[in-house]
Write a structure and sequence with these properties.
- 67% of the residues lie in helices and 4% in strands.
- With 149 residues, the chain is mainly α.
- It has 2 domains: 1-63, no CATH class; 65-134, no CATH class.
- Helix 6 packs across helix 7.
């Protein structure tokens, strides 16, 4: 429903009436699921619409960065990951310098890695395989194939 916000904005309001919940509350509750997807798809239009509904959205967005970065990390190609990382940093800042991309990733790397380790134990074997393909383990080190521009 949130993905369709830009195409059918009344859908959210009508669904929220049926559920007796404010649209901003519904969006807040679902951010953990919608933000990673929206950022992975580089959907600025929907993010801007969500930002209009949620007070102090920039602070809320920063709180979800580890989940967003974990999702971006698992995108199928390096170019998709790089594009999404640049999108996230441009959403945070009007001038997405490469140093900002690196600092955003570095500031959240421990939380992102913890999230990925948890996903390695997922019941969905496709998710486990996707996460596992990003790690290379040898006798003394773990290497992570994280895509930085």
């Amino acid at each position: 429903m949130v993905e369709r916000l830009s195409l059918q904005p009344l859908l959210l309001h009508e669904a929220c009436k049926v559920m007796s919940i404010a649209p901003s509350d519904f969006l807040n509750i679902t951010l953990q699921y919608t933000l990673p997807s929206m950022c992975g798809n580089c959907d600025r239009t929907v993010l801007d619409l969500i930002a209009k509904e949620i007070p102090h959205f920039s602070r809320v967005f920063i709180n979800y960065l580890p989940a967003i970065l974990a999702h971006i990390f698992l995108l199928p190609t390096q170019s998709a990951s790089s594009k999404a990382l640049k999108f996230v940093t441009s959403f945070i800042s009007d001038n997405p310098a490469e140093s900002l991309v690196r600092s955003v990733v570095r500031a959240n790397i421990v939380t992102v890695m913890a999230s990925l380790v948890v996903k390695m134990g997922d019941d969905d074997m496709r998710m486990t395989d996707r996460v596992g393909s990003k790690f290379q383990v040898d006798a003394s080190n773990v290497h992570v194939d994280f895509f930085l521009p």
